[in-house]
Design a protein that fits this description.
Helix content is about 40%, strand content about 20%. It has a single domain, classed as NAD(P)-binding Rossmann-like Domain (Rossmann fold, 3-Layer(aba) Sandwich). The two termini are about 35 Å apart. Helix 1 links the parallel strand 1 and strand 2. Helix 1 crosses helix 7. With about 325 residues, it is of the alpha/beta class. It has ten helices and twelve strands. The protein is globular and about 60 Å long. The mean pLDDT is about 95. Bound molecules: nicotinamide-adenine-dinucleotide. Nicotinamide-adenine-dinucleotide binds next to helix 1, helix 4, strand 5 and strand 7. The site of nicotinamide-adenine-dinucleotide has 30 residues, from helix 1, helix 4, strand 5 and strand 7.
Length: about 325
């Protein structure tokens, strides 16, 4: 039986991924290790909680003894590391937890995986490691790493450590770098769920700067399908960009949310820009498209409607 250790599986993308994986591969055994910080919730995993092939452990990925115990007591085939401190604004306030979880955490996971043996270690990274773009161009997997905020700097650091463990010890690693995800189960501090919640309550929507910053949006199910493909068919030692081919200014996203919720644009409130706010992210995902035949399937309006509906159900 294939056994997968998912770390950070109570968060937004991790919980969507566990639900996706258990649906697609009902014979896999999934161990979910999560510290349950403010961003993680077992409510995200209600659908699988009673499945005998799902097992939850509360703990910290940087706790080496705990990780060793998990590997000793289970025959782990693959490890997929979603665990992270993930909110840029919080990293600007205090970067210490980001260094702990996003840098020391992967180092501990890699060390134990190296000593105990593993078939695949997948590190879930982000397009933010490449830094910011102007109006033109897209980042490929070979673009230099130029992170601009403490969050992206810690994610870039982890990517370099993962690369080093592959080159130095031959550890079978793969890195995925996706663009901004949106969809059900996302914690409310992030732009899309925050603005949907505020729009539903007819509260002001605080938009950074002039709203012209551009992000490439990826529906979380499209990312889950990409990670599943990388897990099974990705090239060891490889890096895969996963973009949504869906670049929007933050103002466009805000206006579409207001439209879908049936609220007036006068709810938009422009606030001082975030320090070091990256202007534009754009990913060239041709590698995963050609090598693994992946394409994003969800249209942005359709994905947003699904996200709004999931929030109305809560
Ligand atoms: N959300 C996005 O748009 C996006 C885009 C690209 C990449 N990513 C990456 O994807 C991964 C998941 O992102 P997300 O949005 O689901 O994050 P999230 O903040 O929703 O979830 C993170 C999870 O990690 C857990 N966690 C935090 N510290 C931990 C620790 N020390 N030990 C164990 N568990 C810990 C939290 O409890 C939470 O469940 C992250 O690595 C992030 O960098 C996210």
């Amino acid at each position: 039986m294939t056994q997968i250790l998912v770390t950070g599986g109570a968060g937004f993308i991790g919980s969507n991924f566990i639900n996706y994986l258990m649906d697609k591969h009902p014979d896999y055994k999934i161990i979910n290790l999560d510290k349950l910080t403010y961003a993680g919730s077992l409510d995200n995993l209600k659908e699988v909680a009673d499945n005998p092939n799902y097992h939850f452990i509360k703990g910290d990925i940087a706790n080496k003894e705990l990780i060793e115990d998990i590997f000793t007591n289970n025959q782990i085939d693959h490890l997929i590391n979603f665990a992270a401190e993930s909110h840029v604004d919080r990293s600007i306030e205090n970067s210490a937890p980001f260094l702990h979880t996003n840098v020391l955490g992967p180092q501990v996971l890699l060390d134990v995986a190296k000593d105990k043996g593993i078939k695949r270690y997948i590190q879930i990274s982000t397009d933010e490691v490449y830094g910011s773009l102007g109006e033109e161009g897209s980042f490929t997997e070979d673009s230099p790493l130029k992170p601009n905020n403490p969050y992206s700097a810690t994610k870039a650091s982890a990517d370099l450590i993962v690369r080093a463990y592959n080159k130095t010890y031959g550890l079978p690693t793969i890195i995925t770098r996706s663009s901004n995800n949106y969809g059900p189960k996302q914690y409310q501090e992030k732009l899309i769920p925050l603005f949907i919640t505020k729009a539903l309550r007819s509260e002001k929507l605080p938009l950074y700067g002039d709203g012209t910053n551009i992000r490439d949006w990826l529906y979380v199910q499209d990312n889950c399908r990409a990670i599943d493909l990388v897990l099974h068919q990705g090239r060891i030692g490889g890096i895969y960009n996963i973009g949504g081919d869906c670049e929007k200014t933050n103002l466009e996203v805000t206006e579409l949310i207001l439209d879908l919720v049936g609220k007036d644009k006068s709810l938009i409130e422009y606030i001082d820009d975030r320090p070091g706010h990256d202007y534009r992210y754009s990913l060239d995902s041709s590698k995963i498209k050609t090598e693994l035949g992946w394409e994003p399937r969800y249209d942005f309006t359709e994905g947003l409607k699904k996200t709004i509906n999931s929030m109305l159900k809560i």
